[in-house]
Amino acid sequence: MIVKFLRESITAAGLLLLIRLYLGYSWLTSGWGKLSGGFDASGFLKGAVANPVKGTTPQIF
């Protein structure tokens, strides 16, 4: 019933469009902020090197 409403309703299509536009804009602005110099991963990388994951099971890819 809900799936049918989401697929066939013009109101639902408009609402989903607004949600998608909002999420796209927010992700775009966040990504642009990281690319233009506001992103610093040095603390994360130092912590990852200082505390490596130790386990008995080998990684299988």
Structure explained in plain terms:
The protein has 61 residues and is mostly helical. Helix content is 74%, strand content 0%. The chain is built from three helices and no strands. The radius of gyration is 21 Å and the shape is flat.
> How many DSSP H or I helices?
3
Q: How many β-strand runs?
A: 0
Amino-to-carboxy terminus distance = 41 Å
Largest sheet: none
Q: What portion of the residues fall into strands of 2 or more residues?
A: under 5%
Overall SS class: mainly alpha
What is the chain-wise order of helices and strands? HHH
Q: Specify the helix fraction band.
A: over 70%
Which regions have little confidence, pLDDT < 50, spanning 5+ residues?
none
Coarse shape: flat
Query: What Rg do the Cα atoms give?
Result: 21 Å
**What number is the mean pLDDT?**
88
Element layout with pairings:
Blueprint: H1 2-8, H2 10-38, H3 42-50
Q: Which descriptors apply to this entry?
A:
61 residues, single chain, 74% helix
Describe the structure concisely:
The protein has 3 helices and no strands. The protein has helices at 2-8, 10-38, 42-50.
